[in-house]
């Protein structure tokens, strides 16, 4: 399975072509839209989220509610596009060269993108570097979730911290009950439940100061059978694949699996998870899950626990110093609109990204021609594990 996304933040929409999904998988737009809606939630987002109301449209590959085995095209249309008729027009005669944007924001892709592609108009970069693109990545991830539920896989996430404000939930020993409880309410989950008022006050304070916030979120994946991923080649390693995919999310600056960086500071006896044997279920359970469910690049049957750090939003209402790329004069930019924080959204996006990585790895192992065949192969593997 592989996919490609296209589309600009203020263009007509965001699109993905997904290749390699088995035929016969039931998919409903509602299964995808629920996650698109979650991605738009969370206190601290800017005016754009009031304009958009994301929903998926299937443009190919799905007929009568089921995948056909052909490439699937997903579209998420931009409502805001109608407000940018000339600025986003593909036609040369509608160009407005006097209005080009030449003021790169520190922390965004603006300057690097212009230097790399020899462009003077920052808009050519920001339209694609924008995290608006994650809308369609969440759509792909939600499609992947439709597949993964046939294997009993469940993916949830929550926000651990925003700025210096810690989430009340403890995760040192993964508390799935708490996560489940938390996830029922979705994230706003954090903002509407755990420390609602504190978080809002803190975010409001940052907004008033013209500042922005990042944070840490955690994805917990349950129901993964042992042996997904591979130890034999660097490209097959499941932790490496999660890391690459998550670092591919805008503004993610760090990814940890299990104890992560903490594993470097403790002796081995406090890092590795002892192996037991459950003769009734023919499984090898662990009393702890410091590895975060992945050893040697493969799932080990324990919940997969991945944390990621998101940096603060680069566009500041109290702007940082920068230089106009045409005049080379210093300036402090004015900002029309921007998010103050988007950590809850990032948490939802991370779930989708992890779902896609896992769906790809499952299809590699169990085949991808038809759901019947894929599930038959999966069942065969379960029996093999039982006989082991
Ligand atoms: C959900 C989400 C929303 C974001 N919203 C904004 C925003 O409103 N303004 C902004 O400047 N950056 C925003 N960002 C961050 C930029 O997209 C990101 O910092 C930029 O693409 C540069 O990439 P890098 O941070 O990975 O280096 C957002 C990121 C995410 C994940
Ligand atoms: C549009 C989304 O996020 C956008 C990500 C983003 C950025 O620079 O990354 C900038 C903002 O866009 P705008 O400039 O149109 O206000 C965010 O709203 C979205 O998440 O759907």
TrEMBL record:
Q: What SUPFAM superfamilies does this protein map onto?
A: Chorismate synthase, AroC
Q: Does the keyword NADP apply?
A: yes
Please provide the Gene Ontology terms (biological process) for this protein.
amino acid biosynthetic process; aromatic amino acid family biosynthetic process; chorismate biosynthetic process
Cofactor(s), names only, from the UniProt record? FMNH2
Q: What is its EC number?
A: 4.2.3.5
> Sorted alphabetically, which InterPro entries does this protein's record hold?
Chorismate_synth, Chorismate_synth_AroC_sf, Chorismate_synthase_CS
- Catalytic activity reported: 5-O-(1-carboxyvinyl)-3-phosphoshikimate = chorismate + phosphate
An example of a Gene Ontology cellular component annotation for this protein is: cytosol
* PROSITE patterns membership: CHORISMATE_SYNTHASE_2, CHORISMATE_SYNTHASE_3
Physiological role: This reaction introduces a second double bond into the aromatic ring system.
Q: Which proteins does it associate with, and in what oligomeric form?
A: Homotetramer.
| PANTHER family found in the cross-reference section | CHORISMATE SYNTHASE
NCBIfam families xref list: aroC, PRK05382.1
Family (UniProt): Belongs to the chorismate synthase family.
Q: What is this protein called?
A: Chorismate synthase
Origin species, per record, is Desulfurispira natronophila
């Amino acid at each position: 399975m592989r996919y490609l996304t296209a589309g600009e933040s203020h263009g007509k929409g965001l699109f993905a072509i997904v290749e390699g999904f088995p035929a016969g998988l039931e998919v409903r737009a509602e299964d995808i839209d629920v996650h698109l809606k979650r991605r738009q939630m969370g206190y601290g987002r800017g005016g754009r989220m009031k304009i958009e109301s994301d929903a998926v449209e299937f443009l190919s590959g799905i007929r009568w509610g089921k995948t056909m085995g052909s490439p699937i095209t997903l579209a998420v249309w931009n409502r805001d596009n109608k407000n940018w008729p000339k600025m986003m027009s593909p036609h040369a005669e509608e160009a407005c060269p006097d209005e080009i944007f030449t003021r790169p924001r520190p922390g965004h892709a603006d300057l690097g993108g212009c230097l790399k592609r020899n462009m003077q108009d920052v808009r050519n970069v920001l339209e694609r570097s924008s995290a608006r693109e994650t809308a369609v990545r969440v759509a792909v991830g939600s499609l992947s979730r439709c597949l993964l539920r046939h294997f009993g896989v469940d993916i949830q996430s929550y926000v651990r911290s925003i700025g210096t404000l810690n989430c009340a939930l403890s995760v040192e020993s993964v508390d799935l009950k708490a996560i489940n409880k938390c996830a029922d309410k979705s994230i706003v989950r954090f903002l509407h439940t755990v420390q609602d008022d504190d978080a809002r006050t803190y975010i409001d304070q940052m907004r008033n100061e013209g500042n922005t916030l990042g944070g840490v979120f955690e994805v917990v994946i349950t129901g993964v059978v042992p042996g997904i991923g591979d130890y034999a080649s660097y490209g097959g390693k499941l932790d490496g694949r999660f890391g690459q995919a998550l670092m591919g999310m805008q503004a993610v600056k760090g990814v940890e699996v299990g104890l992560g960086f903490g594993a470097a500071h403790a002796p081995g006896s406090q890092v590795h998870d002892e192996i037991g044997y459950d003769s009734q279920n023919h499984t090898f359970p662990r009393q702890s899950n410091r590895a975060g469910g992945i050893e040697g690049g493969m799932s080990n049957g324990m919940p997969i626990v991945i944390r990621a750090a998101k940096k603060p939003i680069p566009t500041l209402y109290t702007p940082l110093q920068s230089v106009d790329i045409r005049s080379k004069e210093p300036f402090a930019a004015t900002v029309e609109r921007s998010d103050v924080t988007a950590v809850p959204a990032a948490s939802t996006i991370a779930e989708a990204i992890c779902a896609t990585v896992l769906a790809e790895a499952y299809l590699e192992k169990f085949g991808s021609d038809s759901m019947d065949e894929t599930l038959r192969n999966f069942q065969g593997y379960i029996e093999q594990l039982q006989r082991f």
